Amino acid sequence: MVLSLDSLMIVTDLDGSLLDHHDYNWDAASEWLTRLKQHQVPLVICSSKTAAEIIPLQKRLGITGAPFIAENGARVVLSGAHTAPTEPSDAYRALCQTLKALQSHFRFNGFHEFSDAEVARFTGLTLAEASQSRLREASEVVLWRDDEHRLAAFRSALAKHNLALTQGGRFWHVMPAGSGKGMALEQIQQHVAQQEGKARITLGLGDGPNDIPMLERADYAVVIKGFSKTPVNLQRSDTQNVYHTAHVGPHGWREGLDYFLAPTE
User: Fold this and answer.
1) Which of 17, 28, 220, 246 is the most exposed, having the fewest neighbouring CB atoms within 10 Å of its CB?
2) Is residue 264 scored above 80 in pLDDT?
3) Which ranges form a coiled coil (predicted)?
4) How many separate domains does the chain show?
């Protein structure tokens, strides 16, 4: 199956997808990134990363000003007018206070409890990147230290505060109920269609359970082989529009684009 580049929009997860899970490079995807830019195919980042992390990355990828989805869909930026935050938002601080109250019932830690150096140590990020990952606006990253069977009770406790829990590639994320990568993608699809006067065909790529809403919303989906213990099972009947890669990270990303768009020369 070969899709046309003319009316396409790529929506991609970062860690473990476009970016290598361990060293965060995207060398294997670089040929496709160049080709997409040549054909003016929009590349929409859809990640658990913060806006403070995504904006500099967009610059390095040459897509400054493109819409993007941050914090698993809790933050949606439709235009390039957004500047990277320099401190955590009030909404985030309030969320952390709610979580602090729940720590008397459940064992977990949030990113706000750690220093930049500590976050860098357990994520593999540089010190600067770790600092950017802690400039959160709408969600919190949680390291679950309790028994797995208590997650259901944690979800219920969060729901009472209008919060939800989603699983990323290696961490849990607490975010406002009703937000997520699928809902965020819908907002961006509507925004782009309004701007261009037509809807674009979407090709989504992701490797973790938190990518499922985005991969189910996209017209075509690439499930990149990942490291999560939880499998990425899509509830789609159009299985011919879904491809599961044999490779991980940017090698899997390239494999998925090769499958749907034909390999680069």
Assistant:
1) 246
2) no
3) none
4) 2
Specify whether 13 is catalytic: yes
Tokens 């929409």 belong to which residue? Answer: 44
Give me the amino acid identity at 17. Answer: S
Question: Coil, strand or helix: which one is 59?
Answer: helix
* Whether 74 and 186 share a structural domain: yes
Pick the more confident residue, 180 or 263.
Answer: 180
Claim to verify: residue 96 and residue 226 sit in the same structural domain: no
Name the DSSP class of 220: E
Handedness of CA 223, 225, 230, 233 (dihedral sign): positive
Provide the CATH number for the domain around residue 102.
3.30.980.20
In this prediction, residue 80 carries a pLDDT of 64
Strand ranges (DSSP E) for 13-144? 43-46, 68-70, 75-77, 108-110, 140-144
| Spatial CB neighbours of 88, under 8 Å, sequence gap ≥ 6 | 112, 134, 135, 136, 137
Q: Which residue has the higher pLDDT, 64 or 79?
A: 64
Give residue 169's domain range. Answer: 90-176
- Whether 1 maps to a domain, the answer reads no
Looking up tokens 């003319």 gives 6
Identified catalytic residue from 13, 15, 20, 207: 13
Give the residue-averaged pLDDT of 95-109.
Answer: 97
Distance CA 8, CA 10 (A): 7
| Average confidence score pLDDT of the chain | 93
Q: Are residues 103 and 79 in the same domain?
A: no
- pLDDT tens, residue by residue, 169-226: 678 999 999 999 999 999 999 999 999 999 999 999 999 888 999 999 999 999 999 8
Residue that finishes a domain, picked among 147, 176, 205: 176
